[in-house]
Amino acid sequence: xxxxxxxxxxxxxxxxxxxxxxxxxxxxxxxxxxxxxxxxxxxxxxxxxxxxxxxxxxxxxxxxxxxxxxxxxxxxxxxxxxxxxxxxxxxxxxxxxxxxxxxxxxxxxxxxxxxxxxxxxxxxxxxxxxxxxxxxxxxxxxxxxxxxxxxxxxxxxxxxxxxxxxxxxxxxxxxxxxxxxxxxxxxxxxxxxxxxxxxxxxxxxxxxxxxxxxxxxxxxxxxxxxxxxxxxxxxxxxxxxxxxxxxxxxxxxxxxxxxxxxxxxxxxxxxxxxxxxxxxxxxxxxxxxxxxxxxxxxxxxxxxxxxxxxxxxxxxxxxxxxxxxxxxxxxxxxxxxxxxxxxxxxxxxxxxxxxxxxxxxxxxxxxxxxxxxxxxxxxxxxxxxxxxxxxxxxxxxxxxxxxxxxxxxxxxxxxxxxxxxxxxxxxxxxxxxxxxxxxxxxxxxxxxxxxxxxxxxxxxxxxxxxxxxxxxxxxxxxxxxxxxxxxxxxxxxxxxxxxxxxxxxxxxxxxxxxxxxxxxxxxxxxxxxxxxxxxxxxxxxxxxxxxxxxxxxxxxxxxxxxxxxxxxxxxxxxxxxxxxxxxxxxxxxxxxxxxxxxxxxxxxxxxxxxxxxxxxxxxxxxxxxxxxxxxxxxxxxxxxxxxxxxxxxxxxxxxxxxxxxxxxxxxxxxxxxxxxxxxxxxxxxxxxxxxxxxxxxxxxxxxxxxxxxxxxxxxxxxxxxxxxxxxxxxxxxxxxxxxxxxxxxxxxxxxxxxxxxxxxxxxxxxxxxxxxxxxxxxxxxxxxxxxxxxxxxxxxxxxxxxxxxx
Length: 806
Ligand SMILES: [Zn+2]
Description:
The chain is of the alpha+beta class. Helix content is 30%, strand content 24%. It contains 21 helices and 32 strands. It has a seven-stranded mixed beta sheet. Strands 16-19-20-21-23-22 form a six-stranded mixed beta sheet, sandwiched between helices. The longest helix is centred in the first third of the chain and has 27 residues. The protein is elongated. Bound molecules: zinc ion (ZN). Zinc ion binds next to helix 12.
C-alpha cells in the first residue's frame, strides 16, 4: 500500500520536522538526500517508492533514539489492549470444564440426600429437627472430613457477622433496627447441636467454626463411596421482620398469630467441587448459598390448624386436606385461566381464630433439589392454577394472610404462572411440579419450588402502584430464581451476580410479557414499569464515585452496593448484549445453550462467558472484561464535524517537499489531496469536489458506481467521535440531513482496538448534514449525554438558571 505509507511518512516527517532536535539530524538527512537519486536509478518505480518511504520511516525512529539518549531510558508496557483475550482472568479449561463452556468428560458433582423430621413449636417459637444425610462422593478425591453449613449461627448473640459493619447513628432510624443495633439484642438464634452420629448411632467427632461444622470421619470417604450420618438440633426462631432475616416468623399482634417462612434452617452439606474443593467460606449474611443436589424426604409437624406448603410433592394429601380442599385442588389442576381457591379468605379468617394443642404431620418428597424451604400458619389463604409448560402441567401456587388481600388474590398466582411460561421459553421447561409464592412482610427470598415475597396493601385494602408493581416484580424475580440458582446451580456464596443478575434479566423479560398479557395490571401505561433492565436505569450507578464501586466479579460480601452490583448492572449488561450487541437471535440461542448445559449442574462464571461465545461466534472478551471485571463506564461523544475538500492539485509546499526528495508528482499514480479549513488552498465558496479531476480514471478502471456517486456528492465531512469513558462499545449514531431525513449507522466496537480515544469517519453526502446524535435511543448506558450531539445542545446548569433568574 504505497500511498498509505506515503501519507504516514509525510505525516511523520512533518511531526519530526517540528521537533527541536531536528537540526541534530542534518547528517542523516543529507545522507538520505544523497541516497535517493542513487536508489531511483537502481530500482523500478514501485520499489523506489517503498525505498524512499523506508528512509522517511527511519528518520523519526532515529530522532526518538536521540531523544531517549537525552532523557534516559523510556519504559515499555504490557498488553493493555481492551480486546485482548481473557487468558489471565479465566481458569485454564480442563477435563471438568471445557474451553467451550460445557461440562467436560470428567465433570462430577457430589450428592446429598436428606431424610428429616422437623417440628415447629408455635408456643415457644422453636424449631426442632433430626436429619439423616446420605453423602455420595462422586469426586476423584478421598475425603477425610465433611463440612456442613450451620447458617443459623449467624444469629448467635456473639456472631462476628453482627460486628462486620462500621456503625453510626443515622439522623433517622427505625426503632426496631435502633434497638437491634444499639440496645443489645438478647435474641439467641444459633444452632443447638444435640448430637452427630454415624449410621450405627455412634457419636462422630465434630468441630464448629462459626457457621461451618467439620465432621471427622472414622475412615476416609473414598471416591465413589457413600457415608450416612445424622444430626439432631434445635434453635429459637427469630422474628424476621424485626431481625431482618431470610427466615423466621412474622407476628400479627391484632390476632396474636404468626406466619412462618423457614429456610436454611437445617445443617446442610457444603459444596465440594473441582473449583473450590470444599466451599466453606463462612456465611456473613450477604453471600448466599452453595449447595449440592439431592433428594429430600421431609416430615413437617405443625399445630393441627396450620396450613403447610413446602419444597416437594405432598405425599399424604388425603390426611391433611379436608374433602372440600381436595375437590378444589382437583378443579385447580384443570383450571388454566384463573386461580382456584383451596382455602378461601373467609375460611382463613375463621381458622386464624381457632386454637388447638393437636399437631399434624405433612409429608413431602422432593427429587433433585439443592435446598429445602417451607411455610406454615393458620392465617393462610391458598390458591392454585395450572400452567402448561411444554407438554406438562405445573401448578402455580400462592399462600398469603388476609393482610395481603385484595392484591394477592388478584396478581400473585398470575405472576407465578407468567414467570414459568416466559422463563421456560428462554431456558428449559420448568422441571418441578409446582412453584409457590408466599406473602411475607419485607421478604424477597427464594428456595426450590417456593419463595417469600413482599407487597402489602394498607389496612383499608388500598395500595399504591409502587406497592403493586413491587409485589408483582418481586414474585417474578423470586420465582425466576427457580431457574438460577435452584436448577442452574451456581455458587452464590462467591458469585452473587450469577443468580441475581441472570434472574433480574429474565425478570425484565417476564415483566414486559406480563404487562402485555394483563393490560389491566398497567392502567394508563404503555408497558410494565420495570425498575431494572433498561440501559439508562443503570447510569446513576455507573457514574457514581469510583471509590464506592466494585466490579461485578467481586464476592458479594465485598461490594459497596449489592443491589446495582449483583442485580442491576449484570442484568443491564445482558440486556444490552441481547438488544444492542448480539441481537436476540444469537443471544437467545446462546443463553438457552448455557442454561441447558448447566441445568442440574454447577456452572462457574467462565462456563457462562464461554458458552455465550461458543454458541454465537461473537467474541465477547472485551465485553466481559469491561462490564464484569472493571468499573469502567460508557461515555462516547461527537468531538467535531469538519468540512473538508479534495483536490487533484498538490499545494506548492507539498510539491516542494517532494522535490527535495528527488521526485515529482508524475512519478505517482493519480493522487487526491485533502484540503481542510486550515490550509491556504481551502476555498470556502467551492464545492468539496470542485478541484478533483478524475479524468477517465474511474470509468477506465470500472469504478462506475464511484463515478456516479461523485457526480451526486455535494458534501464531504470528517466526523470525529471521542470516548471519555473507559468502556469500549459500538457507536450508534443518527445523522440528520437538512431536509429533516435521518440515517442510522452503527460502527462496530472493534473501531477502538487501535485507538481507545477517538474514531473518525469520512462521509461523502448528497445532502447537508445538520445534526449528529450518538446513542439516540439510549441503548448503551452512556453516563454523559451532554456530548452526544452536534451541534451541541445548550445545557443549562443550575448555576446558569440561577444567574438568569437574577
Ligand atoms: Zn434474587
